[in-house]
């Protein structure tokens, strides 16, 4: 894709500051379930990534918004040497408009949490940290191919809390073959007891092309059935709800005041810019684009002075309405159908009156006026909720033609 993609701009009014995502594609080992854009490459390739990433940032200099969240995800950002991470943070700040109060987020793996790295992350301005704990149970960690133990994970959380991060989030995976209700609820209770402010709980998905995918194709591995998965999901709301967490998005649970300010942008139509291989961007209006996934191709484009964009799409009004509905039905804040109709010239309320009443009667959504929001049971089937609700385009009212009266 050539440099014409630089026509992509991030829009928005000044009250809507954008989010910046930086994809760090390096990991110390590849987990058998992972289908992200990652590589085991060592320092020479990391140095090339650093140069390319800053060159990519420079392509967007002067293109739009001020960012008030900056999220380093991956891959494993904590696998970067501190001096490299510092150069990237400073380089981004020089090339892009990053607000002085911007919140910086970093994803870390438990085995990288050491007193010196923790201090360095804090001094670079990271205040929120997301720890790839995945399980607080050694056999589960072994099954997932992780390099840390449950004890290491516990210690990393305690150390990060002690270092003064004001939002410590844990990633956990559920739905492992043979996982029991009591085992899973025990892990959730422990995660809350450790003092985490935020938990992201993801269902194990087996993707084609991954090691797990190949094992599944060879009949060596199965996935947990839909109903046991749903039961484990229900437990998350039950256990974390009791511990004071709000399930504010299908996979995300936070103590009051600890929702992820960066991820909320993805769910509420705020613009975001993604840098690095495979990163996605949204202009805050109708246009989305995404980078080449393969690190080498992404880098080659940048070295040739081209924008490393692999594809883009411009959503129609109806698609934007559908997307707003879909994202809204994944969050506890829900979606206001009246403003959806007004904004995108669609009909939802009248044509779905029966469906909405049925979904409410089944306990899958709650309704306040024209605002509908999924209940925990509804969040478990968020995709089905979206499929159930139809969006009809409305013909705009003809504009009356006023013929001037020229008599007398
Ligand atoms: S550490 Fe995370 S990003 Fe890296 S391979 Fe494992 S799951 Fe994928």
Explain what you see.
With 408 residues, the protein is α/β, with parallel strands linked by helices. It folds into 2 domains: 3-267, tm_1862 like domain (pyruvate-formate lyase- activating enzyme, Alpha-Beta Horseshoe), CATH 3.80.30.20; 317-393, Arc Repressor Mutant, subunit A, CATH 1.10.10.920. Helix content is 37%, strand content 22%. The chain has 15 helices and 17 strands. The protein has helices at 43-59, 82-95, 115-123, 138-143, 150-162, 181-193, 211-217, 226-242, 261-267, 295-303, 317-328, 337-344, 353-361, 376-379, 382-388, and strands at 18-24, 67-74, 98-108, 126-134, 167-174, 198-203, 246-249, 252-254, 272-275, 280-282, 287-291, 309-314, 335-336, 346-347, 365-368, 371-374, 392-393. The strands form 4 sheets. A 9-stranded mixed sheet has the order 7-8-6-5-4-3-2-1-9, sandwiched between helices. Helix 6 (181-193) links the parallel strand 5 (167-174) and strand 6. It is globular and about 70 Å long. Iron/sulfur cluster (SF4) binds next to loops.
State the gist of this model:
The protein is of the alpha/beta class. It has helices spanning 43-59, 82-95, 115-123, 138-143, 150-162, 181-193, 211-217, 226-242, 261-267, 295-303, 317-328, 337-344, 353-361, 376-379, 382-388, and strands at 18-24, 67-74, 98-108, 126-134, 167-174, 198-203, 246-249, 252-254, 272-275, 280-282, 287-291, 309-314, 335-336, 346-347, 365-368, 371-374, 392-393. It starts with 17 loop residues before the first strand and ends in a 15-residue tail after the last strand.
């Amino acid at each position: 894709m050539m440099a014409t993609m630089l026509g992509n701009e991030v829009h928005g009014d000044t009250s809507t500051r954008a989010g910046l995502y930086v994809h760090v594609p390096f990991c110390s080992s590849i987990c058998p379930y992972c289908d992200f854009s990652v590589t085991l490459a060592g320092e020479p390739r990391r140095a090339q990534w650093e140069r390319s990433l800053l060159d990519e940032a420079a392509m967007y200099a002067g293109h739009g918004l001020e960012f008030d969240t900056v999220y380093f995800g991956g891959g494993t950002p904590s696998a970067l040497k501190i001096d490299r991470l510092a150069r990237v943070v400073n380089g981004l700040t020089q090339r892009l408009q990053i607000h002085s109060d911007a919140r910086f987020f970093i994803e870390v793996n438990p085995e990288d949490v050491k007193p010196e790295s923790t201090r360095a992350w804090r001094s670079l301005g990271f205040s929120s940290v997301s720890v790839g704990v995945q399980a607080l149970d050694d056999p589960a960690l072994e099954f997932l191919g992780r390099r840390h133990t449950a004890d290491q994970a516990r210690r990393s959380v305690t150390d990060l809390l002690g270092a003064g991060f004001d939002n410590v989030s844990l990633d956990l995976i559920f739905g492992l073959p043979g996982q029991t209700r009591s085992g899973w609820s025990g892990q959730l209770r422990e995660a809350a007891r450790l003092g985490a402010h935020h938990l992201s709980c993801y269902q194990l998905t087996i993707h084609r092309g991954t090691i797990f995918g190949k094992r599944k194709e060879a009949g060596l591995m199965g996935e947990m059935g839909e109903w046991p998965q749903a039961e484990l999901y229900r437990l998350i709301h039950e256990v974390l709800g009791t511990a004071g967490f709000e399930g504010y998005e299908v996979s995300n649970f936070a103590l009051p005041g600890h929702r992820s300010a960066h991820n909320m942008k993805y769910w509420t139509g705020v613009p975001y810019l993604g840098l690095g291989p495979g990163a996605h961007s949204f202009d805050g209006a109708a246009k989305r684009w995404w980078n080449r996934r393969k690190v080498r191709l992404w880098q080659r484009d940048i070295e040739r002075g081209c924008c490393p964009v692999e594809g883009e799409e411009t959503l129609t009004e109806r698609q934007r309405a559908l997307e707003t509905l879909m994202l809204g039905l994944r969050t506890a804040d829900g979606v206001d159908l009246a403003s959806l109709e007004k904004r995108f010239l669609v009909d939802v309320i009248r044509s779905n009156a029966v469906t909405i009443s049925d979904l409410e009667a089944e306990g899958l959504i709650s309704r306040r006026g024209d605002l509908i929001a999924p209940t925990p049971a509804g969040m478990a089937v968020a995709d089905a909720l979206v499929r159930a609700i139809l969006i009809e385009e409305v013909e705009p009212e003809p504009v009356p033609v006023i013929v001037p009266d020229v008599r007398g």
